[in-house]
What we know:
The chain is of the alpha+beta class and 228 residues long. It has helices at residues 14-24, 84-91, 100-107, 133-148, 150-153, and strands at 30-32, 38-40, 45-49, 57-66, 113-123, 173-179, 182-189, 195-201, 206-213, 224-226. The chain has five helices and ten strands. The longest helix has 16 residues, at 133-148.
Amino acid sequence: MEYGGVLPADAPDPSVESEARLRTLDFPVFQLTPQPSLTRAPVVGFTEIGGAVELEELSVLFTYTLWKHPDDHSDTRNEIELDEQTRRDIEEEPAWGRPAWLIEQVQLFRYPMLWDAVRTARHASPDRVRHSLEQQLVDHTNHVLRNSFREELGLPAGPSTRTDWEATVTSVRDGSINVDGRHRSAVQIDTDPFVYAAGFRIDEHIVCTSVLPRESLPFIDLSLTTYD
């Protein structure tokens, strides 16, 4: 229970519940191929839109920590530059303490994150235009840009009506992607200065898209695998 804005030391680890939910899904979910330079964030992201009988949309999102020097996670060259306030928030424990799982997760803010990097989305009644592979790739790309690159895009902290930074379907091109060890037809956005994006369709209802910071590309394998 959370009381007065304080999370008690015995609060349950949310990663346990999210992982359990992930294992109950009745459709395939995709992840970046496990590799030394990446650690999947412990809490899985879910977004959903309700329908009259079943969920109209359910998406699963994986975030990763990037290790530029994966042989030694304690190597300070893995860390990003932090402002003084953020560093204090990570290093200083509040008087009331924090759950062990939260202490561990907070430490990850020292390192570069590939936020919502891989998204698997299932639509119960897909719309031909709104849920096309191209549009879903654009939507995922803009989601990552809006939330991870606001400063680089010159966006204000609050709401903004600017749209000149957004990716559009006109930037989507044909491509290919390695999935479970074989190449599959895909679409990609390779024109944005901050991210590279690629996606493929699994079936009529399910699409997988991946959006990655360009600066991370030299350190990772872009292939995908089915989550087991």
